[in-house]
Amino acid sequence: MNIPDDLNYTEQHEWVRFADGVATVGISDFAQDAFGDLVFVDLPPLDKEFVRGDEVIAMESTKAAASVYAPVSGKVVEVNERLVDDPGLVNSDCYGEGWMFKLAAPDPAGLDDLMDAAGYEAFLTGLEED
Amino acid sequence: MTTLIRIDLPTCDYDSALRLQRRLVARVAADDTAAYLILTEHDPPVITLGRRGSSSDILASPQQLADSGTEVRRSGRGGLATWHGPGQLVAYPVLRLDRGRRSVHGHVRNLEEAVLQTLARFDLAGRRRDGEAGVWAGDAKIASVGVAVQRWVSFHGVALNVCNDLSAFEMIVPCGRPGGAVTSMTEMLGREVSVEDVADSFAEAFADICGFDEGPTLADGEMDA
């Protein structure tokens, strides 16, 4: 399971990269693997404001639909348009070309609630127990 | 070990079943030691469209829908158009999919496997098709799968044609396949099978496949206990 050191993670299996007041968001390797091959990604409109925990993206595999949530509150400043025609990028490169959206979050409240890579790895290990 | 609590709703309209599922999703998201399996038949009948489904997949006229008492609902599940109604077993498992090495695609496979094992108990051979979700008997579809996941908790699920009137599927383009053939257990067996009989087999098979303990069975109205 690939868990890059330089990212933060949520319990819903999103990853976040903060740089210059912008949070770039995608789903983790665990999430893309557990969900399966994506066939459809519904991106949010630019400039839309989200509160932490809101559903930002609807995604579908062959027969399942799921959501991606805002890890922090903020306004959408960019979306990964390539996912419209090629949602499989999320499966092939979830931390790179499969990024999903960027939120302007100059003072991201809730940042402390996110996990670092070691914390997320421990969280995943805990989930293996049923 | 996770305990599977079964909830039997002899018949239930689509909206009420969805409300119950949403309550259970919130409950499982807060406490994942339990999992739920709702078993019901939808009455009145309902045509549902998945998020990507198009209203052009509904072939029936508004008058035909009204005459047959069929509701139409947009649904947050995966997949396109399908029909539910009396005589069809609908199973909605509500459980955490990021626990215990489960997965979303594994959950879809488990639903199909539970249908296959249920059919086998009635000496029917079902099969999967590559690249598609659902179960076929011969060349006709006998069960449809469409799952939704909210905060990694599943809802919606699988619908197995037991003894329903198959002509209702003529009102839609089932799962985006124009003229796609459908069948039922009763049609395949050449004798009437009841949803009740099939529900027990399905619940046992599903619990077994998931490795869950079979917990109590609750009836309508006991969910808040």
UniProtKB/TrEMBL annotation, chain A:
A GO BP entry: protein lipoylation
Keyword Magnesium: no
Matching Pfam families: GCV_H
Residue intervals passing through the bilayer: none
GO cellular component: cytosol; glycine cleavage complex
UniProt entry tagged with the keyword Methyltransferase: no
Sequence ranges assigned to domain Lipoyl-binding in this UniProt record: 22-104
PROSITE patterns: BIOTINYL_LIPOYL, LIPOYL
SUPFAM superfamilies associated with the record: Single hybrid motif (SSF51230)
Keywords assigned: Lipoyl
Family: Belongs to the GcvH family.
HAMAP family hit by this protein: GcvH
Name this polypeptide is given: Lipoyl-binding domain-containing protein
From TrEMBL, chain B:
Keyword annotations: Acyltransferase, Transferase
GO molecular function, one term: lipoyl(octanoyl) transferase activity
Pathway annotation: Protein modification; protein lipoylation via endogenous pathway; protein N(6)-(lipoyl)lysine from octanoyl-[acyl-carrier-protein]: step 1/2
EC number from the UniProt entry: 2.3.1.181
GO BP annotation list: protein lipoylation
Annotated ranges, domain BPL/LPL catalytic: 31-214
Cross-referenced InterPro entries: aa-tRNA-synth_II/BPL/LPL (IPR045864), BPL_LPL_catalytic (IPR004143), Octanoyltransferase (IPR000544), Octanoyltransferase_CS (IPR020605)
This protein's record includes keyword Protein biosynthesis: no
One Pfam entry name: LplA-B_cat
Transferase listed as a keyword: yes
NCBIfam families reported for this sequence: lipB, PRK14345.1
Protein's name according to its UniProt entry: lipoyl(octanoyl) transferase
Organism: marine sediment metagenome
